[in-house]
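Here is one such protein, fold included:

. . .
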Amino acid sequence: MAGWRIPGLAARPRFTSRATVLVLVLCSLVAILAYPTRQFISQRAEISAQRAKADHARQQVEQLRREKARWQDPEYVKAQARARLHYAVPGETPYIAVDPGGQASAQPSSSAAGAAPAPNGAAAGQVTAAKPWYASIWDSVDAADTAAAAAPDTPVPLPPSSVGDTSPHDH
């Protein structure tokens, strides 16, 4: 069968020269346009992300403007001073209710996790009752004093009256 040929019918090549040139042109166009198309798509994604960030920033600015407007109201300032700083109007007696159990509402705070034990014997990660701001400041001063006294490597300056006094008693 392989020897049989029909006269006038020649074997045609699979690809003509036109088809080969057309395929080469299409492949080169795809190769040339691939990188700019990828850049275009990535830049569109960046633009979308920047627009989302800008919208978020606008929302934050609007929220801060509303908060600033609230702080311009003297009644709001008084309410915040009473709630946050435990202030009272003259003639009132302020009270702070303390839960005697203390364990139900106590949550460890992140700032107290690395602190020294509390003076009342509570563990370092526990928060007892909510204290006024001035008590928290005084506790931090006491903790700093305790930490300085507990560090034996750190030289502690002596008062001016005890310089040169070598007696073994405490000052």
User: Anything to note?
Assistant: Residues 22 and 145 are 86 Å apart (CA to CA).
